Backbone:
């Protein structure tokens, strides 16, 4: 077959970790590049001007500025297959934690109130730069998304599978398992939690299920496919792969997982919420995508 | 008043979203130039309310290229809030992680993002990039990806994930390395040293001729300083040098607020840091490889040392031409490979240390500083007695370079515009200059990615030229 798939890689507000992850998969995908897939536009790695249409666009990052909004819609129109790549693009990601605050609060904090910051104009920067959107919304609120590739960043196997499926025409699928299903610390027995604890403040047994030790671990609520990489490195899951199959909302799932494994008597729910930052932890990567979405200002 | 602005956007092959505008008067005299950083995410605000022990996991997402640096600067700040001494073993593992982070970032910048400027000069502007590089230099690209694979593997094995690692935890390191993994990394490190030597040989002549074209651009410099070695991971002091290379200020990292401040500029989401003693704008300065090399008293690596000598770098200190950034990056790569070989070859890294079991908030503030690949990186958090973050300030590498980038763009652009040249040559020279600095714009505003466009604008706001015309 002679016809190559034309690919563009577009970044909205992001950290470039997703592009880095694509490059990390390059020994495996280098063979496809140039032969089956041609990258025609990717400003982070090349100078070529934007084409009028492409077969596939990989979109990384979240929509944080008005320019992001514009770019997103433009590239949807130009592309046959639209791929949301990485947790920011799929769910809002870590930048989605900003939805606990209004954009105005964020700007005032960094440019007016910050220690060691001198602001002679007494206003945030605004000349020749795009305005922020009020809140971060997931891409699906703006455009039709054809494929989701979650992960912060997406695991290597997922990147390779995406490229393979583009070439073969086979359907790209995500794991239907949860992180717990892939976790080496999962004994398969029903979990019993005697007391919720704060990570880093108490002794951790790295060979025992974190949740059973009372540490918040998002394994039950999170889609697998990452091989439980963080847990293997000694850190509990923070949910970057997004909600597990048939799980609408990570927090709802976590609350049910914890309450069915524990009888919280020793700690009041209020203490738990405050000390463990439940919203910021359960929605670490998915706040804009969740049923909660953002903080509504009181009063 | 009338005049015009030249706007360059997108600037390609950099990490982040940026635009350059160049303000000119009717006689084509360049009045001003601004490198606009166009993204903002607000990490400093939304860290507030989060438990401080979570910060080392959240902040790597500021930047997917130097996630290791953010992870480590952050965990250092958290160590000091909890008053934890980090043991020798954990420090070694953190250092290995850090050096591997440097390697991957420098390799990516020089050989993937920057290399087209050097190797594809005969190729039309619009074709310069990674795909053309693979076609023309398949062997080099494969070699680079191979040794970059080594550095990413180190981060993955030690840190848990090659991007956004998680293993550095308050007081220590969570993931031990076993003998099998260590020995595999030693093999890869040895292969890497061999391949990197071949790569250097293959580009040496080209580099020498490329360095013949430099012009000096003296500025102040700032970096971590130690008497005994290049200070990439840790040092007791931050040192500032003048344009002439004299020490003008020196301070402990946790005293940074008394020595550097940041000024908000209306044209960019990136602020303009300056050395307080000199004031603004005299006190603006450069950070990164160039600053580190100028400030280092000694480079404790034979390979890096001899490479520096072969390019006569010591004799030319303080190095001031921006192109030397790239050469020092190559020197630092040799340094990292040398050190990694040494560290990985030592079987003592296989044992592990127990983490402190009782942790509580000892201090309500903590500052953590490392040299990131692009320069000095400061994380500063305040917490309440429960350890929830109440304030966060980060001074990142690229943001410190942006005021100098503005000034140097002005200089470079004038040479073209005053002759009436506003086409691709101008765009190329300006973007090439920006790439010398390897700016990381996600970092600079703890924000977020866009290619560079340059606009020439008149003093009354008319756009006279825009390169390229569309994005």
Residues:
């Amino acid at each position: 077959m002679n016809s190559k798939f034309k690919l563009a890689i577009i970044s909205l507000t992001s950290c470039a970790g997703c592009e880095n992850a694509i490059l990390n998969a390059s020994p495996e995908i280098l063979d496809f590049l140039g032969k089956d897939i041609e990258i025609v536009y990717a400003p982070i790695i090349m100078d070529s001007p934007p084409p009028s249409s492409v077969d596939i666009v990989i979109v990384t990052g979240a929509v944080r500025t008005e320019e992001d909004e514009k770019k997103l819609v433009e590239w949807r129109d130009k592309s046959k297959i639209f791929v949301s790549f990485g947790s920011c693009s799929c769910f809002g990601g870590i930048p989605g934690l900003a939805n606990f605050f209004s954009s105005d609060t964020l700007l005032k904090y960094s440019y007016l109130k910050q220690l060691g910051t001198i602001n002679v104009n007494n206003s945030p920067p605004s000349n020749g730069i795009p305005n922020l959107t009020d809140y971060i919304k997931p891409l699906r609120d703006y455009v039709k998304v054809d494929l989701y590739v979650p992960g912060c960043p997406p695991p290597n196997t997922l990147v390779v599978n995406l490229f393979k499926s583009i070439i073969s025409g086979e359907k790209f699928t995500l794991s239907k398992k949860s992180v717990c299903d892939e976790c080496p610390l999962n004994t398969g027995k029903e979990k019993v939690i005697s007391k919720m604890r704060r990570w880093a403040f108490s002794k951790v047994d790295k060979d025992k299920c974190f949740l059973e030790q009372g540490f918040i671990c998002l394994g039950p609520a999170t889609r697998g496919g990452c091989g439980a990489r963080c847990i293997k490195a000694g850190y509990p899951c923070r949910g970057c792969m997004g909600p597990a199959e048939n799980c609408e909302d990570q927090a709802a799932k976590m609350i049910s997982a914890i309450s069915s494994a524990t009888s919280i008597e020793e700690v009041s729910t209020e203490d738990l919420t405050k000390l463990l930052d439940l919203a910021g932890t359960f929605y670490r990567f998915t706040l804009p995508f969740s049923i909660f979405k953002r903080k509504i200002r009181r009063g | 008043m009338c005049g015009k602005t030249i706007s360059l956007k997108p600037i390609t092959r950099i990490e982040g979203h940026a635009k350059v505008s160049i303000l000119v008067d009717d006689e084509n005299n360049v009045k001003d130039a601004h490198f606009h950083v166009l993204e903002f995410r607000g990490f400093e605000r939304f860290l507030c309310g989060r438990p401080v022990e979570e910060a080392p996991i959240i902040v790597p997402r500021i930047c997917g290229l130097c996630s290791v640096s953010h992870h480590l600067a952050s965990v250092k700040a958290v160590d000091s809030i909890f008053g934890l001494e980090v043991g020798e073993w954990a420090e070694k593992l953190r250092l290995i992680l850090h050096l591997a982070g440097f390697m991957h970032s420098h390799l990516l910048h020089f050989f993937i993002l920057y290399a087209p400027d050097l190797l594809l000069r005969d190729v039309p502007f619009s074709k310069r990039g990674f795909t053309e590089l693979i076609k023309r230099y398949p062997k080099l690209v494969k070699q680079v990806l191979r040794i970059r694979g080594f550095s990413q593997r180190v981060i993955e094995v030690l840190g848990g994930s090659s991007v956004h690692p998680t293993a550095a935890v308050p007081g220590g390191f969570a993931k031990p390395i076993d003998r099998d993994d260590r020995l595999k990394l030693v093999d890869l490190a040895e292969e890497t040293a061999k391949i990197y030597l071949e790569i250097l040989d293959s580009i040496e002549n080209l580099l020498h001729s490329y360095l013949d074209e430099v012009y000096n651009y003296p500025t102040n410099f700032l970096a971590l300083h130690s008497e005994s070695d290049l200070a990439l991971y840790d040092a007791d002091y931050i040192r500032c040098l003048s344009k002439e290379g004299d020490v003008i200020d020196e301070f402990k990292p946790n005293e940074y607020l008394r020595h550097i401040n940041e000024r908000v500029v209306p044209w960019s989401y990136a602020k303009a840091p300056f050395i307080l003693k000199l004031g603004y704008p005299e006190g603006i300065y450069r950070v990164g490889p160039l600053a580190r090399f100028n400030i280092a008293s000694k480079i404790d690596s034979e390979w890096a040392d001899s490479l520096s000598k072969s390019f006569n770098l010591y004799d030319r200190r303080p190095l001031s031409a921006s192109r030397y950034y790239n050469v020092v990056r190559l020197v630092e790569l040799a340094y990292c490979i040398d050190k990694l070989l040494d560290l990985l070859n030592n079987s003592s890294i296989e044992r592990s240390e127990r983490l402190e079991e009782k942790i509580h908030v000892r201090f309500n503030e903590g500052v953590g500083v490392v040299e990131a690949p692009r320069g000095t990186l400061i994380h500063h958090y305040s917490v309440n007695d429960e350890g929830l973050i109440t304030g966060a300030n980060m001074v990142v590498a690229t943001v410190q370079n942006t005021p100098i980038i503005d000034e140097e763009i002005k200089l470079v652009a004038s040479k073209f515009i005053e002759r009436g040249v506003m086409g691709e040559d101008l765009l190329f020279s300006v973007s090439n200059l920006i790439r010398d600095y390897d700016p990381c714009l996600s970092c600079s505003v703890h924000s977020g990615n866009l290619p560079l466009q340059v606009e020439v604008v008149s003093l009354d706001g008319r756009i006279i030229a825009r390169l390229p015309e569309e994005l």
